[in-house]
Amino acid sequence: MGQGVIDFWAMGGYGAFVWSAYAVSFGALILLFGLSWLGSRRREAELERWRKRVEALDEG
Questions:
Q1: Is 2 within the bounds of a domain?
Q2: Burial 33-43 (b: 16+ CB within 10 A, else e)
């Protein structure tokens, strides 16, 4: 059982390349998610500022 797990992680000698590719891909996904989330928050704040400006113009 133990040797099978070691062989799985080694991936026939290509384990370092395979697992580093997975790590880079996962990191890119996390980065893109974070940037999208921050951009969304900024846009929501900007939209709220515009809504307040429009409401102020409608009232005045």
A1: no
A2: eeeeeeeeeee
Reading the chain (60 residues) residue by residue, the pLDDT tens digits are: 678 888 888 888 899 999 999 999 999 999 999 999 999 999 999 999 999 999 999 987
Q: Flag whether 43 is in a domain.
A: yes
For CA atoms 37, 40, 44, 49, the dihedral sign is: positive
Q: Is the pTM of this model over 0.85?
A: no
Helical axes 15-59 vs 2-10, angle rounded to 10°: 60
